[in-house]
Amino acid sequence: MKIIVKERYKEELNIDVINKVLAYLNLNESFEIQYMRGDGRNLVIETDSHKYYIIVSRETADARNAFLAQYISTVLSQYVEDLTTKQKKLSIFLLDTSDRAKTDFIIDTYRVAKTLGINILNESELGLSSIQPYNSFKDWKNARNNRQQYNPANQSSYAMEDEDEYTIFGKLYGANGKESAFLACQLAEIAKKENKKLNFVQVKEHGTEIISSSDKKLLEYYGVNISEGSIVLKDKQIRDRSTCRKQDEFKFNLLEKYGNKKCYLCGCDIESNIIASHIHRITDIDNSNIPDEEKRRQAVDGDNGLWLCANHDKMFENGIITFNKNGELVINPTLKANQVAFIKYITQILKIQDIHLTSEFLQYLMIHNKRVKLGL
Ligand SMILES: [Zn+2]
Questions:
Q1: What pLDDT was estimated at residue 148?
Q2: FRET partner for 32 with CA separation of 20 to 30 A, picked from 71, 284, 336, 356?
């Protein structure tokens, strides 16, 4: 039996660790260890009939993604590219199974791994009842939203659902890139089952990162559609130079400003029904007499939009409802009493929150109000 360890992890993936892993696998043949160059925090254990890839977590579960999540995509790449005729198996072995390795964040990592068919060799040591894979996009998204101390700005990625596709906006910098790739593989597996596509939009935090070639190949293997352009963040501002699809960039900016897809006015969060609604319409921007660069900026500006459900989107676009300069909801006075009553019935939020009511938002709103002639 042969065991391969990467030189750079020689100290951490030592003989004690190897023996523990072999015990879990019920392997007691003699073995030789080969040290190899390259990346991958894992053991490859090769018997006559099997090839086990074992991703080994860090000794102490501390940082957000440094414990395990950032190591998975690299090993997963090597695993899927290995064309051995032996039976392959990919697992995780946890060096730390204390309470630190049981935070909501880390449990999510286990669940994402399980969804990809990666089991956890010593899961029983965690003392949790069996860890379940995610069954659907909604299942995963709900878990993410319910997670303690959920902070969207702290995430390595945003993911959202549109009518026939999912989009993941994956940050590429450092460990975030590895974590985004891992998550994208999982969402691609889920999307396949649901007959949807998964788009991956690259988000550059420092403007220079590119997705690693091994992660790119991995995403392609899982059938992910990698968008050609990218979103470039700098001091939280989107740069004009980006080549990303306009609509993707607009949606990304709405996610940054308002959070998850959810109708601003009624709270409906059935994502496939939620529209990235412009205040100053694209067609009017295109027809306006301003430089192209400014047109582009307005078309993707998060202040020029709201998440609205299909019903509220149409009502806003058609001037049935709008907001005044204080951000208060205004219902078109030409409507009949029963129609006004209906709108009030389906509308819970009657005012734009002050933090969202920026001067840019108001400028777009004034253009909109002029167009729909509500005289506000
Ligand atoms: Zn709504």
A1: 59
A2: 71
**Average pLDDT over every residue of 219-243:** 74
Q: How far apart are the first and last CA of the chain?
A: 79
Q: Is the pLDDT of residue 193 over 80?
A: yes
Distance 240 CA to ligand 1 centre (A): 31
DSSP conformational letter for 239: P
CB 177 within 8 A of CB 211: yes
Distance 264 CA to ligand 1 centre (A): 7
- Distance (angstroms) between ligand 1 centre and the Cα of 34 equals 60
Mean pLDDT, residues 249-263: 94
User: Distance from the CA of 311 to the center of ligand 1, in angstroms?
Assistant: 6
What's the rounded mean pLDDT across residues 192-204? 94
- Please state, rounded to an integer, the average pLDDT across all residues of the chain: 92
Distance 312 CA to ligand 1 centre (A): 5
* Structural domains in the chain, sorted by start: 2-133 (no CATH), 149-244 (3.30.750), 259-376 (no CATH)
Structure tokens at 85: 């005729």
Residues, beta carbon < 5 Å, ion ligand 1: 263, 265-266, 268, 309, 312
Query: Are 5 and 36 spatial neighbours (Cβ–Cβ below 8 Å)?
Result: yes
- Three-class DSSP category at 320: coil
Side chain identity at 204, as an amino acid letter? K
Which amino acid, 359? S
Half-sphere exposure of residue 278: CA atoms within 13 angstroms, side-chain side: 18
DSSP notation for 128-174: -S-PPPP-SHHHHHHHHHHSTT--GGG-SEEEEE-SSEEEEEEE-ST
Looking up tokens 């198996």 gives 89
Confidence of residue 241 (pLDDT cuts 50, 70, 90): very low
Query: Rounded mean pLDDT of 62-73?
Result: 84
Report field, pTM of the whole predicted structure over 0.90: no
Ligand 1 centroid, distance to 168 Cα (angstroms): 23
State phi, psi for 309 to the nearest 5 degrees. Answer: -75, 170
Rounded distance from Cα 274 to ligand 1 centre (Å): 8
In this predicted structure, the answer to whether residue 26 has a pLDDT above a threshold of 50 is: yes
The residue with tokens 């659902």 is 161
Structure token digits, residue 70: 């950032």
Separation of CA 315 and ligand 1 centre (Å):
10
